[in-house]
Predict the structure.
Amino acid sequence: MEDDIQEEVLSEFREKRLGGWQILQLTAATGLTVYAVWAGILMPGFRRVPLKLQVPYIPASKAQVSNVMTLMKGRSGGIADLGSGDGRIVLEACRRGFSPAVGYELNPWLVRLAHFHAWRAGHHSSVSYRREDLWKVDLSTYKNITVFLAPSVLSLLQKKLLAELPEDALIVAGRFPFPDWTASKVEGEGVDRAWAYQIQELRKCYESKDKHV
């Protein structure tokens, strides 16, 4: 039924020629919609962030979430998702037994959206979404970290993770790898790829480099 309706609407557009004024109206409406999404959902979290640290909101795909969780297989305890967006990574981690499952996100609208998804899934009391600056968060209690951030942010985040995480911590990055680190394991292909990094191996690598300097 829905396909028939869609085809009917498309047929009307094919048969009906739009005038200049109608095209202008359509273009303006589209522009206003895009601006409304930007101003209402994306922009509030960006105002407090330096330009080079701004990361546009791009939801993780099902394949990306699956690949991240595959790399986390066999692990337990608390997990923190840095730049958690709409909260889907945290929610899936909760379903797989990670506790506490915490997401850190600066954008208030995305935090609200994450809470809504958790409530709808029946896990609202089992997850935590916090509107906090990840650079000010103490990560020393987390053995599991997930990140979906831009390369410019990942390069700066490396130092914080090396300094704060416990020796047995595992970091999983989705969409983009850490620029200066070698992953211990990779899952998936193309844009759905995820990279796992063991903090103990990374520290040994840095110590070895320091000895040869």
